[in-house]
Amino acid sequence: MNIRKYIIIGIFLFVALALIVKLFYIQVTDSSYKLSAENNAFRRLTQFPARGMIFDRNGKLLVLNDASYDLKYVPNQSTPFDTTALCKILRLSLKEFRLILSTAKKTQYQAATVSKQMSKADYALLQESMYKFPGFYVETRTLRTYPDVTAAHLLGYVGEINKAEIKDDIYYQQGDYVGISGIERSYEKYLRGKKGIKIQVVDVFNEVKGSYKDGKFDTAAVVGKNITTTLDAELQKYGELLMSNKMGAIVALEPETGEILVLISSPTYDPNLFVGQKRSENFKILASDPTKPLFNRALKALYPPGSTSKPANALIALQEGVITTNSVFISNFGYNAGSHFVKDHVGGAVNFTRAIQSSSNAYFCYVFKAILTDHKFITVEERYDNWREHLHKFGLGVKLGTDLSFEKKGLVYPSSYFDRAYGFGKWNYNTIISMSIGQGELGFTPLQIANMTAALANRGYYITPHIVKAITDEQIDPKFTQKHYVGIDAHYFPPVIDAMQLVIEAGTATIARVEGMAICGKTGTAQNPHGEDHSIFIAFAPKENPQIAIAVYIENAGFGSTWAAPIASLMIEKYLTGKITRQWLEDRMVNGSIPIPQEKKQKN
Length: 604
Fold this sequence. Notes:
By secondary structure, the protein is of the alpha+beta class. Strand 14 and strand 15 form a beta hairpin. The longest helix has 28 residues, at 2-29.
C-alpha cells in the first residue's frame, strides 16, 4: 500500500511539474500565444514619415508628397467575407487574390500587404465597404509626386527595398520604400525621416476602439529633411526641350563652386511613371525601349572626347616644357603616323593659337609626339604614364566623387595595357597617335568633360561637382568646397583661353557666337563605330569671371559645330541673359531630330 501511495503521489507530482513547465514555456519562453492574444486586442500601425521635399536653387519645388494607401490583411483576425466584392474594388482577379491570401496566411499573426499604393479614389470606394471585410485595414503612406516633369535622372525615384538592403540597415523592413537612384538614393538617410508607431485597441469584430493607454506608447513619425539643390530647373527644362528627339547628354556647372546647374540625359522619361500601381508595368516598357531612357548618359556613358581634349593636351605640353606658345608645326593636311595617316582640314605652317582656333589634328599629333619623346623620362611607358597622370588631375578617367550615385570612372589605360598589347618597348607615340586628338583608348563621361571645362574656366582648379546646396539643419560635405588643382601653372592658361575665344569668334564654332558676350569654347567630333560621329562642344562664359561651364554630347550628329555648339550657346545665353535673341537657331535645334542608326536599334 505504501508503494502504491508513493507511486500515485509521484504521478501527481510529475503531472503538476509538467503543467508548471508548460505554463512557464507558454508565458515566458514561447511568444506565439502572447502574440496571438495581442493581435486579437491590439493593432500596431507603423507611422510612415513624409519624405523631405526637394527644391531647385531658386526655391522652386521639384518633388513633394501625396497620400497613398496600402491595404493590409491579418489572417487570424479574419472571418468569411465576399471575396468577389473585394476583388472588384481592388481590380484583382480571384486567382491573383487567392494567391495573395494563401501567402499571407503563412504568417497568421503578422499583417500582409494585399494592395499597394491605392489611389485616393480607390481608397474612398474601399472605405465605404471596409466593415464587410474583417481582418483588413488600410495603412496610410506617402508617395512622391513631381509637379514639373523635369530632371528625372538627376532627382531619381523611390521603390520597394530589397532583401540585401534590409540586411545592411535595420531601419528598414520588407515593404518599405527607399531611394533607388539620383538624389533620392544619395541623400536617402536625410530624406527618409524616422518612422513612428501607433497602437490601437480593436475588438473581436476588428473595429478600432481607441488608442492603447491613450497613446502613451505611441511614437510620432519625424518628417524627412528638405533639400535645396544646385539645379536651375528652368535651364534644365530648356535644355531638355533643345534635346528633343536627340540622344546624348548635357552637363552645366558653376565653375567657381562646382555646383551642377544642369544634368540632362536624353531621351528622358516622366518620373511620375514610377509612382502608383502601374510602376512595374511602366518600368518594363522603359527598360525595353531601344533608346535606353533609363540609362543616365551624363554619369555613365563613356564617350571619346574628340578635339575637346586639345586644350588640356596643349596645357600639359606647355607645363612639361616640350612646346611653347611660339611652336609651329607643318601640316600637310594631315599627319603621317607610320602606315597610318591622320587627316587634317588645316594645312601649312600652323601656330599654337591657330591650332586650337581651327582644331588642327596634325598640330596636336606633333604635340603628343613631343610629350611621348620627352627626354626627362627614359622610356615611353614613363612618358605616357606621366601624361595619363596629368589627365587624372583634370578629373578625366577617375571618379570625381560627386554626390550622385553610379558615376562611372572613365577610361585612360595605364602603359601596362599597351605593353601587353604590343610588347614592352615595342610601341611608341605613333602606335597610339589617335589619342592625341581624343580618339582611341579614351572614354570620359559628360560630367568629367564639363568638369575639365570648369577647370579651364577657373584657370587651373575645380571643385568636385555636386547637386545639393543645402539640407535642413545639416551641413553639406566639406569636400564640396575644396579646390583640386590640375598641376598646370596659371600663366599657361591665358594663351589657351584666348584661342578658345577665337574658336567662337573666327574658328570652328562661329555659330555659337552671341552678340556682346565673350564665350570660350572648343568643338569636337568623335568617331563612332555604331553610326555617325558624335557632335561635342565645351564652353564657358563669360571669359572673365565665368558663371557657367558646359559640355554637350549629341550622339550620331556629326560635327561639333552642327548640333552641340548651337545648343550649348543657346543655353549659355538663356542662363546669363534670361532670353534668346536667335529665335531661328532655337527653332532649328528644337525641331531637329537625329535618327537612331539601324545597327544601334538591332543591338538593343
